[in-house]
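User: Please fill in residues for this 1337-position structure.
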């Protein structure tokens, strides 16, 4: 007992000393030894008795129990962390001690000091705290334990020995502080059972904020993996739960304050503190909220509060959505529905709320049960899920591209999830608007949405729309809209790789789901062509899809066991079904339609390329060839089973074509007996019919019973197949086949498409069946010379007969009888057909055997192609007097083609004849001949590049040919030559290609868009920038930039001259297409070049404003400078998906630094640019006003756009020159007033009713227009001159343009309008090197 009395005496003495020092502010804190003594008393087993003695001694010293508070509070506030925690522990122990005067000792100020000590302990933690295990809750500060008096004395000795060792940083001190902190928290929770904080709202609020802050500080201090964090979180949860008891005030208000304090933790990045906050809220919702109406109301309002506080950046916003959904999931169903209705209304709010609502609606529909009310009695029309779905669909047409893309992608994810349950299909179809027609457009709502979004200007929106189409194919139910399908096909040619991939996926998914003709046709037209894509991954995807959707489907159909039982149907049953219907039943899934579409001229080249690529990679299987043979056999047997004549039968369209391509790599899988049988069949019945080249193109198509063209095509592909497998042929059948082919060729009566196939097959069979190469060469040479000899004889006979006929007609006076004339005409027609076939055969022979002797052929062909020439030297040559071009145009065209093939084989001959080809290309009036000559010149360009290079400008004239086919052929061939670098983008070539962007043909426009948007943007990114200004002059047919005064009729056809609306819109479309290909730095440089080379040239007088073409050039420059495409957008960059999706992606520190640097450089360039541009605009405005030019309107429109778009840069100019600001304001007000008056009166012509306005109405309209003009000008200048102080004029490095001495004073507005000015000023502006040169860039 003596020890305890000694402790009490020392404590009382310290308190007396503190009372004597009460004049000091603040009160001196208790020492460490005093705090330890006090804690030792409070920890003793007889603490209640000792505390009574302590208070008695205080009374004897005239000290009240409250005298303990000032020194304790001072120790909590100002002492070191260990002293602060010891003081807090002592204070809480006093409150918890039995018989303690709680209401006397509790003070709000002391309580707030205690809370501050807790925050200080975590904000400035000792190093040893990190990583420690949470101490036992039974531990006591200072290591003191409950002992008897003797034990207390021993501990007192230990403490006294360490009294001077405060915060020494040692390990024992660090552990002691950690244990103290946990002890204080435990005692704080116990104190809340004694003290009711309802009378102290500020203390309650501070307690909540402090306890909520502890897990955050602990996670930063202790680390996320430390066990101490979880221990602290448990303590904090217990404290917060006790705070919510009714004795601490209204539970609803307390819960609201608590949840408000937890909001920053909930919205924080993933951490232990966020998990703690979410876990506490969910436990609160499922626990106390179910029993307390006030707490429940606060919990129900929490998701709405989180919505208001949610950040705008993508990643934090996603975490906020996740947290909100976690809370809503544990709420009652009625509360969930109320929140859903709130989210639906929120989707019509501001942009940040709309995008949050889009994400929330997705998660609500995914995570909450039964969104459409299918398991309840309510109708789906009134379900909360349907309301959410409709709101999400509305956001797919949002004004913000980011929200549109987000809405579409979320909708696609939702459809994919919900469509997995068949019960949701009906509700989904109703929600998506299937069957609800738009009365104006005659299409369903979802079709209209998909069509518009698939053609959206933003790439991320288009990509999301295509993803949605892929997901919707499962619930379309065969009602796939044709317009949407076409739009997906167009997206397969999108400039962005990701869009092309998404489009391929969407249209392929439709192909997997449906076998409709429209789907199959669209897929085969848009996907196989991507085998030529620049992206390797797209080429591989194209091959995989073709293998899966075409070849595997054909293989499955052709190897079906039902084909062997196809003949089991009775004769009557077969007749009832019909031939075509039976074939459709035997080959389902659109196999016959696939084969038929492969024959399309736009599909066949890509199919051949895919088959070749798959064959080289050894990915073709034998079953493909076997299946195609089975399909052909089944078709023949099905035809015969209906007692149809075999000469009317043709194999399914495309079957022979596909077999001819795959047989080159699967020769072992093709049966020779099968080929021999069908060759005999086709040769027997197909060779009997002769083809008239003049009638074949007109009569065969209309004769429904004639299958001549089909037989011809089958023979061509059959010959190709035989050539592919010729190595496997037996020797005797191969020799017989070669003999038959030779005889067929020498008959010269084949269809034009068969000639090449027969010649190539003959050459292949001769080579592959010879014993050695020399023998093969001899055999081929012998066959070629034999055929050539026959062809020359036929050609000479025709020339002699033609000359004789011309002579007879010139000498014969009486007319011939009709019968004799018709017989001679029929004989002449047959002879002409034979001659044309012979000439074509000569061309085919040259291609397969270039070393053939053509000495007898060339003079005859030369005579034909030069017949009718006005050259007197040529008229002396033997040949027909009447031009062959008039009497036999088919022979004339074929002669040019064959001569071109001969020139390809003979370089010396080509050097002499190429000028003749170019001459004929320029003057010919036969469109087929011009088309063939363009193809020939393209081949010459590959073979003889140097010889043809000088004629490229003449070839490009065909880009303006009146025939669409010639224009398209020229564009395609020149584009290929340019891609392969046989032709360079120099001279007028690029400028002439620009006209294709506005061609009358939609196909040519699409090809041009793809060339400029995809190929040139990668291959020649600076081409658009370097040629832009020159394009403005050339398109307007203006020669001011070249200094030439002569009008060049050659280039006039490549201009769009005129100021009419159609011409201006076409030119503007070309300008916009070029601007879209430029990088941001090139846009700025183009802006500068337009100002210096066009606007400044007009001010200098170099560009004549009296000339119509000069005015058009200046007007185009104004329109380009004012268009939105030349402005640098915030997210403008290269043609990549990341550019438009940057708003959705987080960026690291390095990326932010680079982007900030780029923005700074761009801002500096913009500032320098506009400072050089505005003076040019001002001087040009004065010049146009002096000339009373109509271009002043275009200039003012452009200037108004610049004042808005470059207001930060123009700000300094206008602030530095107040007079200039007033002049601009006056001129813009006058222009706006005139424009408003014109609009009010119905336009300049008065068509809108100006003549019917009374004088009073006119005055009213004028006043309204003046008022509107003033408001417009003030709104523009208010943005520019927004209260910034006017800097001294010397601080602005802007050249001042002074009027010259001969300026005249204008009467309008009292300002002087100069008639001329010094040209040196603008010349100096133009010479300032603000931007990099073309070479540097």
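Assistant: Residues filled in for all 1337 positions:
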């Amino acid at each position: 007992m003596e020890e305890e009395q000694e402790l009490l005496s020392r404590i009382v003495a310290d308190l007396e000393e503190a009372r004597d020092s009460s004049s000091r502010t603040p009160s001196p804190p208790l020492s460490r030894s005093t705090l330890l003594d006090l804690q030792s008393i409070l920890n003793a087993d007889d603490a209640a008795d000792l505390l009574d003695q302590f208070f008695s001694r205080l009374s004897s010293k005239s000290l009240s129990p409250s005298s303990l508070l000032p020194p304790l509070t001072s120790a909590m506030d100002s002492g070191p962390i260990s002293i602060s925690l010891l003081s807090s522990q002592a204070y809480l122990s006093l409150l918890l001690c039995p018989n303690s005067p709680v209401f006397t000792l509790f003070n709000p100020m002391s309580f707030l000091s205690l809370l501050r000590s807790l925050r200080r302990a975590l904000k400035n933690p000792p190093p040893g705290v990190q990583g420690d295990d949470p101490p036992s809750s039974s531990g006591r500060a200072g290591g003191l334990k409950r002992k008897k008096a003797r034990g207390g004395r021993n501990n007192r000795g230990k403490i006294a020995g360490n009294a001077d060792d405060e915060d020494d940083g040692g390990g024992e001190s660090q552990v002691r502080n950690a244990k103290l902190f946990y002890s204080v928290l435990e005692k704080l929770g116990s104190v809340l059972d004694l003290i009711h904080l309802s009378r102290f709202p500020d203390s309650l609020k501070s307690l909540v904020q402090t306890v909520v802050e502890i897990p955050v500080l602990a996670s930063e201090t202790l680390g996320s993996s430390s066990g101490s964090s979880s221990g602290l979180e448990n303590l904090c949860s217990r404290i917060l739960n006790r705070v919510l008891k009714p004795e601490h005030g209204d539970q609803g208000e307390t819960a609201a304050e608590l949840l408000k304090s937890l909001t920053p933790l909930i919205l924080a990045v993933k951490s232990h503190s966020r998990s703690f906050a979410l876990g506490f809220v969910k436990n609160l919702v499922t626990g106390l909220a179910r029993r307390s109406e006030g707490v429940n109301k606060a919990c129900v309002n929490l998701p709405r509060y989180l919505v208001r506080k949610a950040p705008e950046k993508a990643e934090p916003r996603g975490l906020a959505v996740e947290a909100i959904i976690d809370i809503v999931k544990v709420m009652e169903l009625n509360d969930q529905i109320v929140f859903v209705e709130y989210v639906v209304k929120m989707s019509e709010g501001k942009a940040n709320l709309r995008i949050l609502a889009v994400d929330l609606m997705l998660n609500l529909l995914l995570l909450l049960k039964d969104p459409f009310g299918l398991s309840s009695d309510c109708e789906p029309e009134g379900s909360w899920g349907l309301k959410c779905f409709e709101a999400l669909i509305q956001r797919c047409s949002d004004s913000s591209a980011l929200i549109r893309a987000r809405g579409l992608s979320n909708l696609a994810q939702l459809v994919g999830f919900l469509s997995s349950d068949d019960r949701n299909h009906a509700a989904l179809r109703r929600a998506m608007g299937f069957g609800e027609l738009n009365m104006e457009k005659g299409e369903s709502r979802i079709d209209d949405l998909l069509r518009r979004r698939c053609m959206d200007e933003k790439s991320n929106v288009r990509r999301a729309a295509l993803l949605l189409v892929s997901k919707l194919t499962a619930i379309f139910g065969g009602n796939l809209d044709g317009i949407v399908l076409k739009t997906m096909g167009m997206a397969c040619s999108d400039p962005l790789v990701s869009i092309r991939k998404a489009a391929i996926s969407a249209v392929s998914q439709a192909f997997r789901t449906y076998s409709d003709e429209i789907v199959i046709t669209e897929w085969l037209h848009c996907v196989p062509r991507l085998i030529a894509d620049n992206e390797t991954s797209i080429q591989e995807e194209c091959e995989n899809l073709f293998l899966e959707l075409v070849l595997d489907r054909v293989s499955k159909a052709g190897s079906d066991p039902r084909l062997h039982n196809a003949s089991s149907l009775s004769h009557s049953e077969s007749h009832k079904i019909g031939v075509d219907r039976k074939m459709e039943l035997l080959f389902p899934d659109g196999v016959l339609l696939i084969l038929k579409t492969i024959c399309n001229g736009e599909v066949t080249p890509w199919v051949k390329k895919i088959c070749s690529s798959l064959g080289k990679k050894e990915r073709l299987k034998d079953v493909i060839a076997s299946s195609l043979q089975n399909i052909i056999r089944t078709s023949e047997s099905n035809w015969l089973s209906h007692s149809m004549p075999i000469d009317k039968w043709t194999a399914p369209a495309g079957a022979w074509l596909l077999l001819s391509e795959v047989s080159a790599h699967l020769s072992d899988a093709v049966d020779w007996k099968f080929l021999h049988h069908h060759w005999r069949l086709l040769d027997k019945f197909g060779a009997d019919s002769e083809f008239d080249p003049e009638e074949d193109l007109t009569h065969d198509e209309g004769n429904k019973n004639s299958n001549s063209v089909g037989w011809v095509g089958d023979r061509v592909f059959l010959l190709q197949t035989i050539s592919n497998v010729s190595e496997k042929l037996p020797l005797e059948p191969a020799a017989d086949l070669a003999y038959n082919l030779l005889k067929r060729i020498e008959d010269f009566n084949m269809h034009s498409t068969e000639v090449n196939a027969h010649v190539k097959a003959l050459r292949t069979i001769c080579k592959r069946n010879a014993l050695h190469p020399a023998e093969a060469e001899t055999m081929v040479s012998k066959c070629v010379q034999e055929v050539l000899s026959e062809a020359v004889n036929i050609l000479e006979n025709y020339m002699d007969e033609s000359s004789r006929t011309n002579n007879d007609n010139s000498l014969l006076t009486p007319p011939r009888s009709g019968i004799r004339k018709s017989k001679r005409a029929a004989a002449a027609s047959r002879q002409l057909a034979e001659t044309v076939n012979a000439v074509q055969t000569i061309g085919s022979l040259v291609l397969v055997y270039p070393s053939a002797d053509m000495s007898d052929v060339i003079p005859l062909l030369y005579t034909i192609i030069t017949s009718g020439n006005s050259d007197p030297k040529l008229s002396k040559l033997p040949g027909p007097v009447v031009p062959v071009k008039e009497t036999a145009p088919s022979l004339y065209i074929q002669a040019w083609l064959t001569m071109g093939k001969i020139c390809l084989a003979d370089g010396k001959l080509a050097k002499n004849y190429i000028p003749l080809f170019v001459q004929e290309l320029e003057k010919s009036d036969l469109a087929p001949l011009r088309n063939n000559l363009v193809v020939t010149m393209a081949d010459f360009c590959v073979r003889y590049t140097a010889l043809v290079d000088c004629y490229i400008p003449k070839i490009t004239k065909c880009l303006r040919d009146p025939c669409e086919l010639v224009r398209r052929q020229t564009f395609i061939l020149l584009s290929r030559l340019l891609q392969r670098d046989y032709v360079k983008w120099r001279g007028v070539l690029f400028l002439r290609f620009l006209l294709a962007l506005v061609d009358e043909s939609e196909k040519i426009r699409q090809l041009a868009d793809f060339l400029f948007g995809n190929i040139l943007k990668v291959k020649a990114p600076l081409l658009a920038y370097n040629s832009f200004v020159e394009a403005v002059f050339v398109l307007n047919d203006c020669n001011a930039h070249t200094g030439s005064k002569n009008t060049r009729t050659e280039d006039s056809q490549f201009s769009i001259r005129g100021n009419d609306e159609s011409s201006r819109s076409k030119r503007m479309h070309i300008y916009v297409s070029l601007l879209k290909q430029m990088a941001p730095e090139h846009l700025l440089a183009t802006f500068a070049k337009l100002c210096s080379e066009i606007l400044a040239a007009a001010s200098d007088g170099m560009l004549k404003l009296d000339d119509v073409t000069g005015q058009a050039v200046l007007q185009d420059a104004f329109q380009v400078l004012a268009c939105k495409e030349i402005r640098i957008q915030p997210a403008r960059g290269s043609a990549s998906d990341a550019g438009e999706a940057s708003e959705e992606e987080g960026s690291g520190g390095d990326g932010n630094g680079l982007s900030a640097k780029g923005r700074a450089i761009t801002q500096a360039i913009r500032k320098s640019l506009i400072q050089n541009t505005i003076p040019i605009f001002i001087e040009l405005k004065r010049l146009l006003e002096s000339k009373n030019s109509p271009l002043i309107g275009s200039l003012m429109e452009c200037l108004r756009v610049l004042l808005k778009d470059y207001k930060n840069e123009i700000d300094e100019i206008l602030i530095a020159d107040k007079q200039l600001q007033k002049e601009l304001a006056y001129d813009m007000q006058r222009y706006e007033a005139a424009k408003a008056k014109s609009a009010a009166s119905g336009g300049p012509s008065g068509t809108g009713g100006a003549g019917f306005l009374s004088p009073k109405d006119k005055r009213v309209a004028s006043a309204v227009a003046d008022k509107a003009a003033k408001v417009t000008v003030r709104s523009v200048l208010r943005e520019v001159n927004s209260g910034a102080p006017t800097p001294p004029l010397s601080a602005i490095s802007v050249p001042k343009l002074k009027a010259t001495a001969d300026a005249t004073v204008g009467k309008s507005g009292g300002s002087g309008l100069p008639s001329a000015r010094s040209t040196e000023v603008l010349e100096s502006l133009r010479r300032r090197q603000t931007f990099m040169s073309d070479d540097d860039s």
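For context: The two ends are 95 Å apart (CA to CA).
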